[in-house]
């Protein structure tokens, strides 16, 4: 019975040695460090208040412990106010005490490691062990001696210099059982258990939080990855789209410069075509009120921007009207060449173009010029562009119809349909069925950024059956002004007689204009096509007659002679007797010889005019 009581006393003494002796040693460690650094505990705590607050937020220390360190009132804190758990936490966490931040507190220290970190770790291990020993359990004398010796060495090292710690140790190891002290020890051990339970619960919560954070991070990473993949895919698609646009624009510029940058000037210059921009003289333009056809409601158009915009709003439907010979096709090709210059600068071409025209056409990302006389059996603008333009750019394999539609839908485009009077819906010529309407014009899709400019003779507009909203903006190409006729004549003569100096050239131009302007048929000189032919007659040494009939016969004779020179004699189904040939043709060999052909052509033209009107 006595031995059992002694063994219980041994447990009690070990508990006192750890609880009171350990607390004393660790308090001494803090006090010694503060003294050596010349700083008070309060100052040390205030310097690291932010770190200590984070310990509280992380629930490493409790609110009660935090209030001990930073009391709202009363005396300043001392180490005597702190329990062993709080002191160990401060020693490990505060920079002032200089413990190794990389020390593994969860591992058992090596026997040879006598560092402060290792001794604190050992002391915590003994504390944890005795806190799990039931109060009714005893410690045998041999175990007691081993434990006491180990703990004493730890406490001595932690209290170096030892001061009076050894005397305290001696008191602790010989103290008798005391019910009150035993109760205090058990309460202290209970605090440790509660604290450990809180720590374990916190660890579980932290583990749960970490798992949730990991789950969120994984989901976030998945979202980011998908977003990045989406962005990358979008960037790739955007890059492909930009590449398609560039290829199309470059192809269009090359196509227009190859196919539409030159004009056939006249039979006198059949050896080579003439650059359009250096030769072209634009006829006067007039804007027509869509609600009337009265001449007084025509307003002069001074720039291209007035055609494409009305009160700064883009016109989506434009009809350019002009009689035969005024230059509808030349105007269409001029627009295409200005657009090319706006997007691919050519210094030589720049000299022949107006800056305002270039700026106007630069607003359009793409221009599509479709000659409706070559439309074949196509009735849709989109099909016309794809089959008649894209297929000629070498892009038909790389630029699909869907890709073309994407550009037409998203980019600012102008589509020029030249020669509506030369086009009829294929349903009228074949068995091909089409369910879209109206059938009087090529079918189009409504697009916010796409302007459709159509050139036609005025009579065609009257048979379209479209209302004013569908017609949109109406513009008329009128005859040349005197100055424009002078400029065009000068350019023709300059090309024919390039060796002449500027003064001599202007004298001849003035003489030519005077020769034709006094005649009653002078208005012929203000129709561009007729002016070109009359100038060719002048250059060919043909006398300019006073009657329209003589002028037209001379033009026909000139055309026939040049055609025969290039292609040889023409075949005819039969010949007329000389008595059937009008006297006005008698002096002209080719007109006389091919009079039957001219009669058939004249009849065809007459019937066509009657039928369409």
Structure overview:
This protein has three domains: 2-177, no CATH class; 282-479, Rossmann fold, CATH 3.40.50.300; 484-612, no CATH class. The chain is 56% helix and 7% strand. It has 24 helices and eleven strands. It has helices at residues 2-37, 41-47, 49-57, 63-69, 84-93, 116-131, 141-158, 165-174, 179-259, 276-279, 305-308, 328-343, 347-350, 355-362, 381-388, 401-410, 458-462, 468-471, 482-496, 502-517, 528-539, 548-567, 589-593, 595-612; strands at residues 262-263, 274-275, 285-288, 298-301, 309-310, 313-314, 317-321, 366-371, 413-418, 450-456, 473-477. The longest helix has 81 residues, at 179-259. The radius of gyration is 53 Å and the shape is rod-shaped. The model has no long low-confidence stretch (mean pLDDT 80).
What's the pLDDT, averaged over the residues?
A: 80
Any idea how many domains?
Answer: 3
Distance between the termini: 139 Å
Percent range of helical residues = 55-70%
Query: Could you list the spans in which at least 5 consecutive residues all have pLDDT below 50?
Result: none
Strand content: 5-15%
Q: How many beta strands in the DSSP annotation?
A: 11
- Sheet with most strands: 7 strands, mixed
Count up the helices: 24
CATH topology of the largest domain: Rossmann fold
What secondary-structure arrangement, pairings included, does this model have?
Layout: H1 2-37, H2 41-47, H3 49-57, H4 63-69, H5 84-93, H6 116-131, H7 141-158, H8 165-174, H9 179-259, E1 262-263, E2 274-275, H10 276-279, E3 285-288, E4 298-301, H11 305-308, E5 309-310, E6 313-314, E7 317-321, H12 328-343, H13 347-350, H14 355-362, E8 366-371, H15 381-388, H16 401-410, E9 413-418, E10 450-456, H17 458-462, H18 468-471, E11 473-477, H19 482-496, H20 502-517, H21 528-539, H22 548-567, H23 589-593, H24 595-612
Parallel strand pairs: 7-10, 7-11, 8-9, 9-10
Antiparallel strand pairs: 1-2, 3-4, 3-11, 5-6
Helix pairs in contact: 1-5, 1-6, 1-7, 1-8, 6-7, 7-8, 9-12, 12-14, 19-20, 19-21
């Amino acid at each position: 019975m006595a031995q059992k009581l002694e063994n219980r006393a041994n447990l009690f003494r070990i508990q006192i040695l750890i609880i009171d002796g350990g607390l004393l040693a660790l308090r001494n460690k803090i006090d010694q460090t503060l003294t050596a650094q010349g700083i008070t505990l309060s100052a040390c705590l205030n310097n690291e208040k932010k770190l200590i607050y984070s310990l509280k937020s992380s629930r490493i220390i409790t609110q009660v412990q935090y209030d001990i360190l930073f009391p709202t009132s009363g005396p300043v804190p001392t180490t005597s106010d702190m329990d062993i758990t709080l002191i160990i936490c401060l020693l490990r966490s505060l920079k002032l005490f200089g413990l190794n931040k990389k020390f593994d507190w969860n591992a058992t220290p090596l026997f040879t490691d006598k560092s402060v970190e290792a001794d604190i770790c050992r002391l915590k291990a003994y504390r944890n062990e005795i806190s799990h020993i039931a109060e009714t359990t005893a410690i045998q004398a041999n175990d007691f001696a081993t434990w006491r010796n180990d703990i004493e060495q730890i406490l001595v090292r932690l209290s170096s210099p030892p001061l009076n710690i050894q005397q305290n140790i001696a008191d602790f190891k010989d103290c008798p059982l005391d019910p009150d002290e035993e109760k205090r020890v058990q309460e202290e051990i209970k605090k440790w258990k509660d604290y450990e339970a809180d720590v374990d619960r916190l660890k579980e919560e932290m583990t749960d939080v970490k798992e949730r954070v990991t789950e969120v991070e994984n989901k976030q990473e998945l979202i980011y990855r998908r977003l990045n993949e989406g962005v990358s895919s979008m960037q790739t698609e955007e890059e492909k789209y930009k590449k398609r646009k560039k290829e199309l624009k470059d192809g269009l510029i090359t196509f227009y410069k190859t196919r539409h940058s030159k004009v056939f000037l006249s039979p006198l210059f059949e050896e080579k075509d003439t650059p359009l921009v250096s030769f072209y003289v634009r006829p006067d333009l007039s804007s027509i009120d869509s609600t009337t056809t009265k001449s007084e409601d025509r307003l002069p158009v001074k720039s291209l921007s007035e055609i494409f915009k009305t009160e700064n709003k883009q016109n989506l439907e434009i009809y350019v009207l002009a009689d035969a010979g005024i230059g509808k096709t030349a105007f269409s090709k001029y627009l295409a060449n200005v657009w090319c210059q706006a997007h691919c600068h050519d210094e030589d071409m720049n000299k022949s173009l107006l800056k305002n025209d270039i700026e106007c056409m630069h607003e359009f990302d793409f221009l599509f010029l479709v000659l409706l006389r070559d439309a074949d059996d196509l009735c849709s603008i989109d099909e016309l562009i794809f089959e008649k333009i894209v297929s000629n750019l070498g892009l038909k394999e790389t630029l699909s119809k869907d890709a073309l539609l994407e550009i037409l839908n998203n980019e600012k485009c102008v589509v020029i349909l030249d020669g509506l009077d030369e086009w009829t819906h294929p349903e009228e010529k074949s068995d091909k069925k089409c369910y879209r309407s109206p059938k009087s014009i090529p079918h189009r899709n409504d697009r916010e950024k796409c302007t459709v400019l159509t050139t036609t003779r005025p009579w065609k507009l009257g048979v379209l059956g479209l209302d004013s909203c569908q017609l949109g903006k109406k513009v008329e190409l009128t005859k040349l002004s005197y100055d424009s006729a002078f400029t065009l004549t000068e350019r023709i003569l300059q090309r024919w007689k390039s060796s002449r100096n500027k003064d001599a050239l202007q004298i001849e131009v003035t003489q030519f204009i005077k020769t034709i302007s006094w005649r009653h048929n002078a208005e012929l000189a203000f129709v561009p096509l007729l002016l070109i032919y009359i100038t060719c007659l002048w250059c060919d040494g043909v006398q300019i007659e006073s009657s329209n009939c003589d002028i037209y016969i001379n033009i026909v004779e000139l055309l026939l002679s040049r055609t025969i020179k290039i292609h040889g004699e023409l075949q005819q189904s039969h010949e007329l007797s000389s008595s059937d040939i009008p006297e006005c043709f008698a002096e002209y060999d080719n007109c006389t010889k091919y009079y039957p052909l001219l009669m058939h052509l004249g009849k065809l033209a007459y019937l066509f005019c009657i039928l369409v009107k």
